[in-house]
Amino acid sequence: MIVFEKPKSLTDAQLHYCPGCTHGIIHRLVAQAIDNLGIEGKTIGVAPVGCAVMAYNYFTCDMVEAAHGRAPAVATGLKRSMPENVIFTYQGDGDLASIGMAETVHAATRNENITVIFVNNAIYGMTGGQMAPTSLPGQVTQTSPYGRDVTTAGYPVKVSEMLATLDGPEYIARVAVNNVKNVKAAQKAIQKAFENQINGKGFSLIEVVSSCPTNWGMTPDAALQWVEDKMIPYYPLGVYKDRSAKEDK
Amino acid sequence: MAEKVLMKGNEAIAEAAIRAGCKHYFGYPITPQTEIAAYMAKRMPKIGGTFLQAESEISAINMVYGVSGSGKRVMTSSSSPGVSLKQEGISYIAGSDLPALIVNVQRGGPGLGGIQPSQSDYFQATKGGGHGDYHLIVLTPASVQEMADMTILAFDLADKYRMPAMLLADGTMGQMMEPVELPEPDDIKVYEKPWAVTGTGKKRQHNIINSLYLDPEELEKTNFERYERYKTIEENEARYESFMMDDADYCVVAFGIAARVSKNAVIAARKEGIKVGMIRPITVWPFPKKPLAEAADKVKGFLSVELSMGQMIEDIKLATECKKKVELCNRVGGMIPSPEQVLESIKKLAGGND
Amino acid sequence: MTTQLLIAGFGGQGVLFAGKFIAYNGLLEGRQLSWLPSYGPEMRGGTANCSVILSDEPVGSPIVSKPDILIAMNLPSLDKYEDAVVPGGMIFVDSTLIERKIKRTDVKVFYVPATGLANDIGLPTLANMIMVGKFIKESGAVSTNNVESTLKKVVSARKANLLDMNLKAIECGLNLEG
Predict the structure, then answer these.
(1) Model confidence over B24-54: pLDDT tens digits?
(2) How much is the ipTM here?
(3) Chain B contact for A38, CB < 8 A?
């Protein structure tokens, strides 16, 4: 009896992510959702610039590599030309909330019928640990060596809260992958974000609070604890917008 | 033969694009090309296509990248400052070997510049424009008819060679009306695109649209391969028009609106007994090097007429290996040389040799 | 034969439309032609002009810098372009809006109180087409036969009443003596 297996929508390629990085978990959750919904053959993923840049090697569906921050625009082009296909983007915090903020906000406000997986680990990982738009106040990074000083570097961007103020998007939720309970909730939310697209409901974004042991300078365990102690209090988990649920009531 | 209609150059591009099977347009308003967006906004919803006014030029070109990845014909249009913004996306499109049409209805620069016609994006268009080694196929229409015809040609060449093509027009070409005979839809070629991301259907390995190669040897290989393709294009696709060159002692070189003005000047000079002709590059990449090299063996000098500080003149000097002198006749900033100014320059060029 | 025409006035006077009408008229006669507008940030009130070239040969430069015929709809336009008209050319002046006379003696001048006439016949926005009527009559650049069929090309079918109004204005110009 098989009790555990790799989702079919993941390739056999070995992930390049650092030990303890939660990208692997999130990849798995996305692939599991694709498997569960039986949409592997018609799904096209858009990879970002950042740690997940080579996500195109890990998913068995067709993939497009986008320029930094432009994934929602690329996904818009793909979806508009192939409305029957399922299009998702997989983006980090620098990609989605800094250089690609305009693309994110406008895809959301157009209620573009795509699924956005937003991995928030409060740091630029690939380039070696610089301050991200979501780095916490006081957080020490390579480019905030004395801790993020909100008087000069401003405050973190709360993407889910901000996008939920728009009339456009269908579904905005924040989840985490720091423990089994949260992973299970994340799985459900991610699958719902894909289902929404299949049902023509529109823009769904799942913000996944994630960790970066390497650039946070912590062991994987300590990093997951930091998610619980520091990240989640600043970025509370939950559903920020669910238009259909609201309409059903 | 189809009936001739009177259309603005910008509108002719839009209508021809639709007839070429382009059902997806993404743009952002900027003078003097806005008629293209306006035309698309009206027509696309009626043919089940996409018109999307993007949040920026950057987004528009990345939407183009997405559609192109799906294998469908797609275009964007803008004018100089907006085309600068698109360069990032154009580099990705070129680096991923995707076809697309980018229209630049040029205006004066640099910076915000002006809104009057210009040809000062020549370097940007012909030498790549964004980062990295790449080219676009660049067509330079000189009439409203050519705005329509070259739109279709650009789509075909882009598909044929899997690379972005640019229509390099200017404010005059975009705004002017001339009679145009629109091409009939059944002439449109269809290209197989097995590389497109349309969903694997679980029947094939996944396709990946990508320009990232972390292994330098692999990246070098893709660049070499791409330049092999460019070589074929340079050999087969350089286009030009030759006017009164058979017995010419002097050769004017000009494209687009500058060629229209220069034609008047060439005719006037001939009436004054000066044996002058004109080579009008229709593609500026690939640049028509061969006819210019041949002309260099026959004529005494060249005159480059440009709406720039002298950009194409460098390609003329390279093509002719500086065998003969090449003079510049130009106006910039939105000004257009008059036929009289070009005639004076021709006389000066001819006088200098006698 | 080639006719280089420049029509100039304020934005909103229908300068571009007048040019478009003349261009379409040429098209129906199978002439070669070009129509080139000035374009700028002002939609109303600024200066507007358009170059129209009608020819039996392919049109070279579409820019008219030395017009055979100038239609001046306001004083700044006359001031700007009077000297550019080729010797032996024609100038049509809206004499309601332009009080001064032409300084040139080597051109043929038609003073047309177009704006006043347009008001008189109840078509205050169509002074441009009265000028067009006079232009057709005096210049011989286009024939008088295609006025109605041209209007059908340039006036939207949904605005049939506009067609009649334009026709009336053009006829007013065509019938002007002197």
Answers:
(1) 999 999 999 999 999 999 999 999 999 999 9
(2) 0.94
(3) no
